[in-house]
């Protein structure tokens, strides 16, 4: 499954018409039906609910292959609390559910009008407020407008000053937001801006059609007033902006509804955004045979640490073991060696020559070579600091070790504003920057990175020729190639916004590479596993107050649950 830009979605819709002969009106009908179905489920309390114990990030409506949830409701992470089950109905039994559809004059409004017709047919009390002149309706929206008009559902709040808009909204069990979709340009203008204000002022539960009105479906920007929804039902493929903040904070749960796009219709390049589905990660986790021994599960090396920061190496090394590596060696400056060794008895710790500041010193690069030669992969950077000798060591390791390298934290500074140097690395490199580190690498600002995270990660992958993991809510993993592939991760929650959680991720990716996974695949899978472990803890305990070290103990169960999901989930979830 892909996340798509508005332009990619339009191209897919066009191809569906031109090549397969399915007209857009048919897609609109399916879209409206999907909205009505989710609306009915939340109104009557039957769901939408997940059918597999797969964590919060991905669940399907029981028995339905075409309606799946790809984003949990914010603040509701985790399979335990979120073992999705029946919810209390929005509309108490004994009377018809009351629904108000606010519609614009584009195709988004058309979807809402189609949904209104279905809900009316199923017995709901439906009112439609059309914001915009009927003459400006798109042809397909007009078909649905006429059908609703015929059923006596539509009111034009602008033409008819008597429409008691706020009263209707206040009485609604559910408001369906069909004002603006992917056709929006810039901040909403009147009368739609006023309609958004009225919907928000009413404070009733909102289901957004395709995207919450007012958000930029590509970049996730929110340039003006926008709807905050409890549910978003998006069509064919989730729009990229639904996973990017600030828009991602307005979507509530995101449900993807199939609307009849044929299986062969895929988003056109130059960049594509596949979803890193948990089941996909689970299906790809290494499975050691019963005859495995530590030598066959990969010997890996973590190079980093400094006197002030010994913990980062310990976390990364332990995470590599928890991810399944057979043997983990840590190479740290001598003054940090005792501290690292005392953190975990399972790590083999080597002290290397140090400088006066407690970081690596002269001779460290030579001393580490024998350890490199006996390792299948390296992580370089956790806690390494910014000393000259440390930077020299990083460059030498990345550019000459001839082993896959996970490059993290201060290690990334060794290539600040010189990302092209990484093109000459003799073996694949996985970079794991957060926005600030990526900004350093690209010679730009963290704000510029955050303003367009997909563009920043694409640029980094293009300039380095390597795999780049841009950490943050919905981590993006750019794996290069043509079209350039940017994986959108679905797992994780704010529990990961804590010191050391990046070190754990580095260790997980290293551990997976150590077991023979392709480094690009290890990056995508490792990010999903890391977030999945955090989701499980957040669900069981809470998302706040979790330490990075808490993730370590969760990894075995998270791995097992993910692997089970990989076996059991339907093929199109992988
Ligand atoms: N294959 C699909 O994905 C399908 C998508 N459907 C739905 O169609 C919309 C996109 O429809 P479109 O007509 O292109 O645009 P909108 O309805 O989003 O907007 C229409 C209208 O709004 C006006 N407008 C633009 N910017 C502003 C603004 N800043 N303020 C006020 N008004 C604005 C402008 O005049 C536009 O014409 C997609 O989201 C889906 O919901 C299909 O129905 C099913 C197939
Ligand atoms: K909308």
TrEMBL record:
Superkingdom assignment: Bacteria
Annotated positions binding AMP: 471-475, 502
Cofactor binding notes: Binds 1 potassium ion per subunit.
Residue intervals of the YjeF C-terminal domain: 277-562
Residue spans of biased composition, Pro residues class: 85-95
Entry cofactors: K(+); Mg(2+)
UniProt region (Disordered), positions on chain: 72-96
GO biological process, one term: metabolite repair
Annotated binding of K(+), by residue: 108, 177, 213
Assigned keywords, A-Z: ATP-binding, Isomerase, Lyase, Metal-binding, Multifunctional enzyme, NAD, NADP, Nucleotide-binding, Potassium
EC id: 4.2.1.136, 5.1.99.6
Alphabetical list of Gene3D superfamilies matching this protein: 3.40.1190.20, YjeF N-terminal domain
Ranges of residues in domain YjeF N-terminal: 9-267
GO molecular function: ADP-dependent NAD(P)H-hydrate dehydratase activity; ATP binding; metal ion binding; NAD(P)HX epimerase activity
The keyword DNA damage appears for this protein: no
Catalytic activity annotation: (6R)-NADHX = (6S)-NADHX; (6S)-NADPHX + ADP = AMP + phosphate + NADPH + H(+); (6S)-NADHX + ADP = AMP + phosphate + NADH + H(+); (6R)-NADPHX = (6S)-NADPHX
Family assignment from sequence similarity: Belongs to the NnrD/CARKD family. In the N-terminal section; belongs to the NnrE/AIBP family.
Job of this protein: Bifunctional enzyme that catalyzes the epimerization of the S- and R-forms of NAD(P)HX and the dehydration of the S-form of NAD(P)HX at the expense of ADP, which is converted to AMP. This allows the repair of both epimers of NAD(P)HX, a damaged form of NAD(P)H that is a result of enzymatic or heat-dependent hydration.
Subunit structure: Homotetramer.
Stated name of the protein: Bifunctional NAD(P)H-hydrate repair enzyme
The organism of origin for this protein: Caldinitratiruptor microaerophilus
